[in-house]
Amino acid sequence: MFKRLDPFGNPNVGVYARATSSHLFLPPGLTEQNVADFREALGLEAVTTTIGGSTLVGSLVVGNRNGVVVADFVRESELEVLRQTGIEVLRLKSARLNAAGNNILANDRGAVCHPDLPKGAVRDIEAALGVEVVRGGIAGIPTIGTAAVANNRGVLCHPLTTDEELSFIKGALHAPARIGTVNHGHGLVGAGISANDVGVVAGSRTTGIELGRIEDALGFLE
Fold this sequence. Notes:
The protein is α/β, with parallel strands linked by helices and 222 residues long. It has ten helices and 15 strands. The protein has a single domain, classed as L-arginine/glycine Amidinotransferase, Chain A. It has a three-stranded mixed beta sheet with strand order 1-15-14. Strands 2-3-4 form a three-stranded mixed beta sheet. The longest helix has 11 residues. The protein is globular and about 45 Å long.
């Protein structure tokens, strides 16, 4: 299922929403229609929360079916909302790089993180998500979560990603990797898309041609 919408009037869907194969995290304040569209496209009921009082949930949370990693300024009440889902929750204790959704790309098979995350943080992420985590960026962008979006079927990467980087991403996430854009030519596809194995939500400016490449990259044309 595919939907195009602009949460809070902004086409950068991935900044606000985080979907995994088992959970959908949305900020409060979305319209009822937006929430319904997310649920329909991604096949999941929404868990509504802020992170540190911020609505930028997609930028601050990342996860898979085993757990979630969240920015360390998350409030205790927000942590409780996440824990009530029954999955492992990790506060990313890295003062400079704690925007977990921006700095980590993950699916149920693997994860890639910002190259400057310290070894201790990488080990903690591995424990929370239950997968191997490797460091790396693509297209000269270290904030891997903004430059790519992944599910268990495939990975869509920034259009300047090299063949060597695509091979690296494929090996790390154990899924095919391809390039594409969102929102009429924007390369930061991780910021513009929220996706899982069921469907995709992209900004309203996303063209039909872009949607076709997104479908192909994320394995919906198989």
